[in-house]
Amino acid sequence: KEKTFAMIKPDGVYGNYSDKIKAIIMDSGFSIKRELRVQLDEDTVRSFYAEHSSKSFFPSLVKYMTSGPILVMILEKDNAVADWRKLIGPTDAEKAKVTHPQSIRAMCGLNTEKNCVHGSHSIQSASREMSFFF
Ligand code: ATP
């Protein structure tokens, strides 16, 4: 079965959404293979999100991602990468509330930055992100 990497970002953990999100994950047919609560430091965020390092929002992203603990997970199911991306919804959580009201970001995200969860974009990025944390 396929594996993907999932993260509950600081706003999701702080807002007490972790248990609710984990229930949605399991109800959607994923099994949670690994789970770790961590507090990221700035260098770790810069390295994890290196592909965005030249973007104007990068300093803000680093600040947000170090603002509190996160929960990282390895999820497993057939088609896990695409199905988890579908379940979390679009990057902009505000738009998600209108266009994807059933998505996780619609439930607990705030805007384009504070969007509560992360999911790997591809099998390759899933593999990188899983070995980054586990
Ligand atoms: P993720 O990779 O976290 O699942 P994503 O794939 O939907 O999110 P990316 O384009 O990879 O979005 O951006 C990574 C993260 O950077 C976003 O989840 C968000 O927290 C932040 N981000 C992206 N675009 C913006 C923006 N325009 N302004 C502020 N923050 C942003």
Automatic annotation (TrEMBL):
Record's catalysed reaction(s): a 2'-deoxyribonucleoside 5'-diphosphate + ATP = a 2'-deoxyribonucleoside 5'-triphosphate + ADP; a ribonucleoside 5'-diphosphate + ATP = a ribonucleoside 5'-triphosphate + ADP
List of catalytic residues: 118 (pros-phosphohistidine intermediate)
UniProt keyword list: ATP-binding, Kinase, Nucleotide-binding, Signal, Transferase
GO MF: ATP binding; nucleoside diphosphate kinase activity
Statement: the UniProt record of this protein carries the keyword Signal: yes
Keyword Plastid tagged: no
Protein origin, superkingdom: Eukaryota
Domain (Nucleoside diphosphate kinase-like): residue spans on this chain: 1-134
Residues that hold ATP according to the record: 9, 57, 85, 91, 105, 115
GO biological process, one term: GTP biosynthetic process
Sequence similarity: Belongs to the NDK family.
Protein name (record): Nucleoside diphosphate kinase-like domain-containing protein
Part of the full-length chain shown: 31 to 164 of 164
